[in-house]
Amino acid sequence: MTAALKQTYSPMEIVISDQGSEDGTLDVIKELASKYDGHNRVTVLNCPETALRGMAGLNSHLNWLNDNVDADVFVCSSADDFSELGRTAKVVEGFEKTDADMVLTQQLFANAEFTVNAITAHPKETKMVGVQECIANLVGGSSSNAWKREFFNAAGPIPYLISPDFYLATLAAARNGLYFIAEPLHTYIKHNDPNNAGLEGKMRAANGNEHEQMRLKELACYQIGTGYLEIAKKMRDWGISDSSIVTVIDNMVAQCALWISVRNNLDMLKIQPMNIEI
Predict the structure, then answer these.
(1) Would you tell me how many other CB atoms lie within 10 Å of the CB of residue 10?
(2) Radius of gyration, alpha carbons of the chain
(3) Which of 20, 46, 95, 136 has the most CB atoms around it within 10 Å of its CB?
C-alpha cells in the first residue's frame, strides 16, 4: 500500500479497497490514508461483496470496483505486492503510446520473506503481444496488469471462477491490443498458502502430498479449460473469427483432454475430486 501512495504519477486517484477483512486491516488502511500528504486523491472503500471466496471472491471484487470507481484506467496491485514508484507513469505512457486495451509490465517474484527468486520470463522486449504468444508464454499470468475501463466493460464481468489475469490479457490481445513493458516495475509475493485465492499458492502448500497435488491439478485443468471456453464465447460475441479464436479453441480442446486424463487418474486411485472454493 505504501508503494501506491508514493507513485510519482499525478494527478490520479489512489483507491484502496478492503473486502471483508476481519484482522484490523481496514483500520490500518484508513490510518495510512489519513496521513497521506501527496498531490493525489486517496479513497478507501469497503467492498460489500463478501459472500464468495477464492478466485470467485477476487473476481466479484474486481467487478464491483469497475462498477463503483470512476476511472478511465485501472492500474492494479494486491495488498502484499508492491510497485516501483514510476510504474503508474510508465503504464499511462504505454496506453497513450499504443491505445492498447491492456498494458502489462515485467515483474519480480519474491517469497514470503521478500527474497526475489524469479522474473517474468516472456517476452524479452517491450512490444505488442498477440493471442498465440500470450497463451503460449502465460504472459498475462506472469506480469503486472493495467486495463482501460472501456475494455473491462466490454470483457466483463469476469466469470466467477476464471483467472482474471489469463482471461483479460488474452481478450485484450484479441481486441485492441496487449502492450508489454519489459521493465520489472512490480513485485509479486508468492505464498505457500492452502487458503490462497489462486491455486498456485495451494499447490506450493501441498508440496510432497501427491494426492493433494493431483486433486489441485484436476481443479486447475477445469479452471483453465473453462477460461478458454469463456474467452472463445466472448470473442465470438465480438465477431472475431480469425486465427486467434482458432488458437483459443485448440488450447481449450488440449486442456480438456488433459483434464480428462487427470480425472481418470483420480477415479482409478479412488481419490475424491476437490470442490472449487466459492
Answers:
(1) 11
(2) 19
(3) 95
- With beta carbons less than 8 A apart as the criterion, state whether 199 and 163 touch: no
- Cα 278 from Cα 73, distance rounded (Å): 28
Query: SS3 of 145, please?
Result: coil
Distance from C-alpha of 80 to C-alpha of 72, rounded to nearest angstrom: 25
In the block, cell 465470438 appears at: 236
- Taking CA atoms, 268 is separated from 17, 51, 214, in Å, by 45, 35, 12
Question: What is the Cα–Cα distance from 120 to 106, expressed in whole angstroms?
Answer: 5
C-alpha closest to that of 131 among 121, 142, 140: 140
Residues 110-122 pLDDT 10s: 988 889 999 999 9
Tell me the CA end-to-end span of the chain in Å, nearest whole number: 27
In tens, the pLDDT along 181-238 reads 999 999 999 877 666 666 666 667 777 789 999 999 999 999 999 999 999 999 999 9
Amino acid at 156: G
CA angle 230, 232, 235 (to 5 degrees): 110
Q: Alpha-carbon distance 115 to 189, whole Å?
A: 9
**Full-model pTM:** 0.93
* Residue with the three cell numbers 484482522: 23
The three cell numbers of residue 207 are: 508440496
Q: Determine the pLDDT at residue 131.
A: 97
- Mean pLDDT estimate for the chain: 93
Q: Determine contact, residues 149/68, Cβ cutoff 8 Å.
A: no
